[in-house]
Amino acid sequence: MGPLIELVHVRREFDGGRIVAVADVSLSVEHGESVAIIGPSGSGKSTVLNLLCGLDQPSGGEVRFEGKAVHGPRAWAEVRADHIGFVFQNFCLIPTLTAKENVEVAMLGRIAGAAKRAERAVSLLTSLGLGERLHLKPMKLSGGERQRVAIARALANEPRLIVADEPTGALDRKSAHAIMDILTGLQRDTRTALVIVTHDREVADTCGRKIEMVDGRIVNGPATGIVHAVAGGAR
Amino acid sequence: MNELTLPLRNLAGQPIRTFLTTLGIAVAIAGYVALTGLTQGVQQNFAGGIGDQGGDLMVSERNSFSIISSSVPEELGPSLKAVPGVADVSGTLINIASADNNANIVISGWPDGSFLWQGVKLASGRLPQPSDEWPVVLGSTIANGLQKKVGDTVELQFQDFTVVGIADFDSVLNQNIALVPLKKLQGLLGREDSVTLFQVRLDRPLDPQKVAVAKEDLQKAAPGNQVSDSEEFGNSIRFFSLIRAIASTVSLVVMAMAALAIANTLLMAVTERTFEIGILASLGWRPVRILRLILVEGLIMSVVGGIIGLGLGILAMDVVSKAGVAAGLMEPYLTSGIIVEAILAALLAGPIGALYPAWRATRLVPAEALRRT
What we know:
A: alpha/beta, 4-stranded antiparallel sheet, globular, B: 14 helices, elongated
């Protein structure tokens, strides 16, 4: 089986080429592996994450999902809806919707039947310890609870890849540990690939592979899971 | 949760803005319904009212600008009466004037002995006699409005008339009419020897073929004039076409303003909710789905505004038609056509106004949108 997702000589420039956020990066993520992308602020790690899941478009190079190049917002929307779940530092929950509805919204157009969607949302949230918080809006939830809602939403369509951008950045230590336990547990139990962008070494250590970026380039760490597997075995 | 939950929550999240925009649409639709209904009501009122007076066909000046500007020589009467199938003809002179400087009133002058007087159902008093100096029969609504009874005096066309009878009619126009002898009105208006139109009564029983033949013969007997039934007569008056055109133009401008209000509201909403739209895009919502979300928000406001506007329009028609200046001249006129047009206009205004903001929403790059917290 080939890589799940690949960046092939990807470049991302801003301001007409005066700012190069990502310079010729190639990176592949295998099915079921966990990868941490680390680096200082402005190193381009979040941009790489955005390119990896089509939230941003590369200035050069291409992104492949299961070996096929993906182009354009519509094609990326399909890939994200069916195969990618997101967890962000600032939770990215819709404030006017309840916890349950925030999970259901990811399933609209993907899972037919409101009852079926509601059942799955309740099941996911309950499994993450939010069974009593289903009908609360994000403002009424703690940071850890909001991040668990975001994880439930990321899992709603049974993705093959979860991408997490600083998922513990806005949480206290205890909540951060709990969230990482959930994410790594999911990766381990369901063989869902996990890509985490973090500046926290402790968080990065929970991943099977670490890639370090500086000034828009990978400076340390294997760019492919196969190299990683040869070097030290998959997690 | 279903497809409507998110747009409804978004609208509910900005209640004042949503309310004001919806109200803007409602006012636009109300304006459309009231303007269209009242302008058509004026036409229906005049045409229907004249038709109810007892004539089957009317002979009037071709392409007359307004009812009161039509002028037909009185001497045409005998040749019209000689047409086969014609039972009787009656000249009618019509004018609009104020009664006691209080209300607008339609004054209609009928010749002594006209068959039109036979159709007057008196509630009190009697019909004018040749010996009466300035007699008038008032419709019961205007008589009540002016608080007149038989024997009272009412000033019409700067002349005091004595109320000799009060009559009940079916149409709003006739309920608010003042019937006077033709010669008296001709004298007051300086229109001796001319009438506004001739009312033609055909032989009974009526059948469409006979009516068509009589119409053709009457047309030959009155060259340069038009022969019509009451509905055709209403449609032929250019003044009504003019006010319909004005009403349509004003309605169009108001509807365009409503669409702009929706565009402005949704543009603000899209700008404010850039982050939320970024979230939806990150969840894999396709651009067309995001477009639909914004369009549905516009549609919800326009449907609700349309329904409220329809109610407000009917209310406005009622209030205006009862106002002193319009009472008796205007009648609320609501047809299924007006309702359908108003609903269609509302249904179009929402999505048209929402189109640009929705398109803007689909152009957002998700990564950029998510940075705007």
